[in-house]
Amino acid sequence: QVQLVESGGGLVQPGGSLRLSCAASGRFFVIYDMAWHRQAPGKQRELVATITSGSTTDYADSVKGRFTISRDNAKNTVYLQMNNLKPEDTAIYYCKAVRPFVFWGQGTQVTVSS
Q1: How high does pLDDT run on average in the chain?
Q2: Are 64 and 84 in contact (CB under 8 A)?
Q3: Backbone CA torsion sign across 83, 84, 89, 91
Q4: CA-CA distance, 91 to 105, in Å (whole number)?
Q5: What is the per-residue pLDDT across 75-109, written as a single tens digit (0 to 9) for each?
Q6: pLDDT tens digits for 62-84?
Q7: Comparing C-alpha atoms, which of 107, 111, 29 is closest to residue 71?
Q8: What is the 3-state secondary structure (H, E, C) of the chain?
């Protein structure tokens, strides 16, 4: 069992930055591929970024060049640095343990508005 707890969401103006954190419980975080997803009001949940156990990363086209996913295995934490935020980035952001088993966090709200 892996428990995931997100933090770092909030209200930010367009062009601003936020860093989301996802703290994982358990001894086996290091072997997990991890991801961030988001869900905007009235829309389906979508994949934002992934990071493998070997720290290979991938991003949705909509966030490439603006968002950076990273991990600190010593802290059992995965991060999402979000720069140059846009109103369309407004959503609940979810952390996900992808592989070998799937677990979800409870989500953190990000609102981009002036």
Answers
A1: 96
A2: no
A3: positive
A4: 14
A5: 999 999 999 999 999 999 999 999 899 999 999 99
A6: 999 999 999 999 999 999 999 99
A7: 29
A8: CCCEEEECCEEECCCCCEEEEEEECCCCHHHCEEEEEEECCCCCCEEEEEECCCCCEEECCCCCCCEEEEEEHHHCEEEEEECCCCHHHCEEEEEEEEECCCEECCCEEEEECC
Strands 77-82, 67-72: parallel, antiparallel or unpaired by DSSP? Answer: antiparallel
How many other C-beta atoms lie within 10 A of the C-beta of residue 15?
A: 11
One-letter amino acid of 87 = P
From 88, 97, 80, select the one nearest 7 (Cα to Cα): 80
